[in-house]
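Quick one, tokens below:
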């Protein structure tokens, strides 16, 4: 049976929603929100320049959008949602099993989906196999699908990837390169509009503060940890909060403030119990 081909506007809308972008966010500086609405509802066909700019902001190519089908979109979204669930809950063994599925790469069409695949793969290699060189290789490969230093739109996933690359580099003893990437990911976070801040960016704060702690730059580490915990609070999330509070306890302990340290060790344990319910 021939697969149903869906319109450019329909696929664009699906990808926009998957990326958690509003019409206003996607259309900004490209076209009016009303024009985007008409495009998504197949009431207007965009010119090539607008089409290209919209696709670039979504991290896809025009060809990728034009060749997708509704059945394929649904199947890929289901797979990516499973991966995202295991990744968010740090279930790396289950995530690794999903990534090992036969011909999984043949199911991924968009650059942003391939980016996620290699982000997850590199993370599994880091946390499970501790193969730092391979983890770094795959994280860099994931970033390469969409990242351009001079582009106007930086995604949450790209910022996380840069931070994770920095963390692996420091573990490999590449301190100069690692610190540069960790600091760069923090700089990029500061450029994000409030509506695009994702709770998963807590990892960016943790990675940088962990490096600063390991370098015995305790006051700097403490400032970053506090900012990270505040960001998570505003997002009403627990993601990486346990790790941030545990690290905060270690920093206070290193500063000779044992009572403060014990306080945050207890808070970290409480968060762990909550998240394990």
């Amino acid at each position: 049976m021939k697969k149903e081909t869906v319109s450019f506007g329909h696929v664009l809308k699906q990808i926009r929603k998957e990326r958690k972008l509003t019409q206003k966010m996607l259309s900004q500086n490209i076209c009016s929100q009303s024009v985007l609405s008409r495009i998504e509802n197949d009431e207007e066909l965009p010119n090539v320049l607008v089409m290209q700019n919209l696709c670039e902001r979504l991290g896809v190519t025009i060809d990728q959008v034009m060749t997708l089908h509704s059945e394929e979109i649904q199947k890929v979204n289901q797979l990516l949602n499973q991966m995202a669930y295991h990744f968010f809950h740090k279930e790396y063994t289950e995530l690794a099993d999903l990534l090992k599925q036969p011909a999984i790469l043949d199911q991924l069409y968009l650059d942003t989906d391939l980016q996620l695949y290699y982000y997850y793969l590199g993370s599994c290699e880091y946390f499970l196999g501790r193969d730092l060189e391979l983890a770094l290789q795959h994280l860099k490969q994931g970033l390469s699908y969409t990242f351009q230093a001079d582009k106007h739109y930086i995604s949450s996933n790209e910022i996380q990837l840069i931070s994770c690359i920095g963390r692996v580099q420091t573990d490999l003893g590449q301190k100069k390169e690692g610190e540069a990437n960790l600091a760069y990911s923090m700089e990029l976070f500061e450029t994000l509009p409030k509506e695009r801040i994702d709770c998963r960016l807590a990892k960016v704060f943790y990675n940088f503060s962990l490096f600063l702690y390991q370098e015995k730059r305790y006051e700097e580490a403490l400032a970053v940890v506090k900012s990270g915990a505040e960001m998570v609070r505003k997002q009403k999330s627990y993601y990486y909060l346990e790790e941030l509070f545990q690290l905060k306890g270690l920093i206070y302990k290193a500063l000779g403030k044992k009572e403060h340290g014990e306080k945050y060790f207890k808070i970290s344990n409480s968060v762990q119990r909550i998240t394990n319910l």
